[in-house]
Design goal:
With 549 residues, the protein is α/β, with parallel strands linked by helices. The protein contains 19 helices and 17 strands. The chain has 3 domains: 112 residues, Beta-Lactamase; 163 residues, 2-Layer Sandwich (Alpha-Beta Plaits), CATH 3.30.70; 209 residues, EAL domain (TIM Barrel), CATH 3.20.20.450.
Length: 549
């Protein structure tokens, strides 16, 4: 018996760093493993401690709900908690647990330290709610739905709306608001598949993958009670809950994820009193199918390179010399003649943008190779979403290894920077490009509050001053001073600046006075797929605007 026991303990430690047994009152009854190494405490010091006191305060509701899951289902799988170390600092661990009714209702919990995890290995969650964001939830949701299908388990997407949650939060102080968000997050995770299949979508809206048999009325009432308990007026926030039956059998996991993220984004964006969650849920299945059909069409466009390059010049503000051209897409066929923004936005929302970014890169390289003028250089756009995608990074390195000749002629312009999750990892990618001889530009600088954070964290060669920010600066009383401060900061950092949306001579003079290095805009001509015409028109504009000829 002793040998068997030791063997099973040894097997457990193949995965875990710490093993805990909790009694029926959820207090530590037994502990073994690398407790001192992981949290700096002696194992004996944990005996008799309630499980919720082992974790940081903001995770106590979560551990309560995890053990509630074990009460209902017998086990919890691969959850993340933060233990308190000897200095009351958080230590992240993965948790797997079981509850055995025939062993006195005790809980058997295995903990694995995440201290050695490389940044970016884990999908980030909202710190307040412990829930995924929509961009990560779509992958998890599609996987959970496909797994449930294989197991013969009936699972569905459940949508939750608390339309007046924002008003309730206004009535609460910071700590009470935080506690409410944690409680809502824990309640949704507790009824989701595996206790970890729920997402916060903003504006009091949530989504989770749950069993089809979920009692939606009970969840609705539970959320209502949670908000009433938190509300000093006792009013609370009325909850709406609806389930959507999705066509999981007809699509592969990747396409299902793309359709889901598109449909969920539509759910997040719905506003106003006319919005009906029940009606939206009834239509969600058809929305996913439509999105998946559009996904497959877009994939065909990308794989067939069924698009053209339009060129738009970036000029030196000193003498009008062309520094490089930005490559813009112009789609053909049914997508031709329409604004590319619609399709690029769709690709961003459905996770297809990395495929397009690689296709555009190949198209630009093919064009550059054919040019007789070897001094021409072109910037290709790369989405912040793509920068964090391993498939994109692998494809990117493969393309660059076979096109070493493009060094000095190819630039990378990072767009959609708001989608960057991990600045440290992103900077490693950008520095790798720069070391290989490719300049990097950060787009839309000044468009959001995080712009200076990006400039601090990311070493780049060029920043593009957001066109709308430039236009607003021209109108604002302090705009000139602010724009001058930005350009001076960039200059001190050794970063060149490009002002976008320079569409008239007054705008050109304004940004020149502010110390901008380069300009781009309709004043120098519209983007065109006819490169020779673009070059001719740009040179003519430069003569008139910069040299007075």
């Amino acid at each position: 018996m002793k040998t068997d026991r030791n063997r099973f303990v040894a097997f457990a430690f193949c995965w875990a760093d710490i093993l805990l047994e909790l009694d029926a009152d959820r207090c530590v009854l037994f502990v073994a493993g690398a407790v001192e190494r992981v949290i700096g405490k002696q194992p004996a010091a944990l005996i008799g401690i309630p499980a919720r006191d082992l974790v940081i305060e903001t995770d106590r509701l979560l551990i309560d709900n995890l053990l509630n899951i074990a009460d209902k289902r017998g086990r919890v799988d691969d959850m993340t908690l933060r233990l308190l170390d000897e200095e009351d600092e958080p230590v992240s661990v993965n948790v797997v647990g079981y509850r055995f009714e025939d062993l006195g209702g005790h809980y058997y919990v295995a903990l694995r330290s995440l201290a050695g995890q490389v940044a970016g290995d884990m999908r980030p969650k909202d710190r307040e709610t412990g829930l995924y964001g929509v961009e990560h939830f779509s992958d998890i949701a599609s996987r959970r739905l496909k797994e449930a299908q294989k197991q013969g388990r009936d699972a569905e997407l459940t949508l939750v709306s608390l339309p007046t949650l924002g008003a309730l939060q206004q009535r609460l102080d910071e700590s009470a608001g935080l506690a409410l968000n944690q409680t809502i997050g824990a309640a949704l995770k507790a009824v989701s598949i595996d206790g970890d299949s729920a997402a916060g979508l903003g504006e009091g809206r949530y989504a989770l993958i749950s069993d089809a048999a979920l009692d939606t009325a009970q969840l609705r009432n539970h959320l209502g009670d949670i908000t009433k308990d938190a509300d000093p007026t006792g009013e609370g926030a009325q909850a709406e809950v609806a389930q959507a039956d999705l066509p999981t059998a007809d699509f592969v996991e990747e396409d299902l994820a793309a359709g889901l993220v598109y449909a969920i984004n539509q759910f997040s964006a719905q506003q106003g009193g006319a919005f009906s969650l029940a009606e939206f849920s009834r239509n969600l299945g058809s929305m996913v199918v439509e999105a998946q059909t559009a996904v497959n069409s877009f994939k065909d466009v990308v794989s067939d390179a069924n698009f053209d390059i339009a060129f738009h010049p970036i000029l030196s503000i000193q003498d009008g010399a062309i520094q490089h051209y930005e490559a813009l897409v112009r789609f053909r066929g049914d997508m031709g003649g329409q604004s590319p923004f619609r399709y690029i936005n769709f690709a961003e929302e459905t996770g297809l943008i990395w495929r397009f970014d690689i296709a555009m890169l190949r198209k630009v390289l093919e064009w550059l190779r054919q040019q007789q003028d070897k001094q021409v250089s072109v910037a290709v756009n790369v989405s912040g979403n793509s920068i964090g995608n391993l498939s994109f990074l692998n494809a990117l390195q493969g393309v660059l290894k076979t096109n070493i000749w493009a060094r000095g002629r190819l630039l990378f312009e990072v767009t959609e920077s708001a989608r960057i999750d991990n600045l440290e990892e992103t900077d490693r990618v950008l520095q790798n490009l720069r070391k290989q001889g490719f300049k990097v530009c950060l787009d839309d600088f000044g468009a959001g509050a995080a712009s200076f954070q990006y400039l601090t964290a990311l070493e780049v060669d060029i920043v593009k001053l957001d066109g709308e920010s430039v236009q607003n600066a021209r109108k604002a009383r302090k705009g000139r001073a602010l724009m001058t401060s930005m350009t001076r900061l960039c200059s001190d950092l050794g970063v060149k600046t490009v002002a976008e949306m320079i569409d008239d001579e007054a705008g050109l003079e304004f940004v020149r006075d502010c110390g901008v290095d380069c300009v781009q805009g309709y004043l120098f001509g519209l983007p065109s797929t006819d490169f020779k015409d673009v070059m001719r028109r740009t040179q003519l504009s430069a003569k008139q605007l910069f040299r007075g000829e």
